[in-house]
Amino acid sequence: MKQLRIKIIWLTVFSIAMGFMEAAVVVYLRKIYYPYGFQFPLTPVEPSIGMTEFLREAATIIMLLAIGILTGKNTSQKFGIFIFSFAVWDIFYYVFLKLFIGWPESFFTWDILFIIPVPWVGPVLAPCVVSLTMIALTFSVIYYQEKGIDVHLKMKEWILLIAGALVIILSFVQDYLKYCSIHNARYSLPWKDTLFNEISTYVPSSFNWWIFTCGEALIIAGIISFIKRARGRLRVCS
User: Fold this and answer.
1) Which domain holds residue 172?
2) 52-70 as b/e, with b when 16 or more CB fall inside 10 Å?
3) Which residue has the higher pLDDT, 4 or 79?
4) Which of 40, 71, 96, 178 is 20 to 30 A from 204 (CA-CA)?
5) What is the dihedral of CA 139, 164, 89, 133, to 10 degrees?
6) Structurally, how many domains does the chain consist of?
7) What are phi and psi of 214, to 5 degrees?
8) pTM
9) 79 in Cβ contact with 72 (< 8 Å)
């Protein structure tokens, strides 16, 4: 158990450090592109910077995946550690932005969350809720496996988690896709054109909390299913 605590502490430290690095980069970008404060519509970004930003986001995911693959004992733990690191990184990214530049103003401030393969947008509260759910799942998986219970995520649980994640992603891209369909806009890939040029008038209009809540409910159902099964195995073993 002591080894597990040390592992979690270092994973947390690593993820917080990544959150700091991410926030630092965003502070520099906002000084250049949003000197009077970040807001929509998005400022077009020249291809060289756009491509760098696109690859930076991809590299961040690869780094978080790598830490899960290197640290976890099995597939469930590897996945759990990946999403734990992702969640802590994401939360502290906003913590450091608030400390550095006083942003976001509130949990309901809109942000561009991701740009792969298209822009994801939503209130800051939404990714924070997802991150807390990720942390809960990770602790559930690691806790029972460290108790000596050989419990892996079953197919039903994987389906619930993946379906929930896809529904949540839909809630993040839905407003943007709606805008594109109405205005016949085309998202510019950073290696082909100026990033955000085609959506330079896009201002988020509404976030679909119903879709988001449905996605969260599916993920929570997957977590509850796993915990119930793990508790049952724990009772049998003891």
Assistant:
1) 2-237
2) ebbeeeeebeeebbebbee
3) 79
4) 96
5) -40
6) 1
7) -60, -40
8) 0.88
9) yes
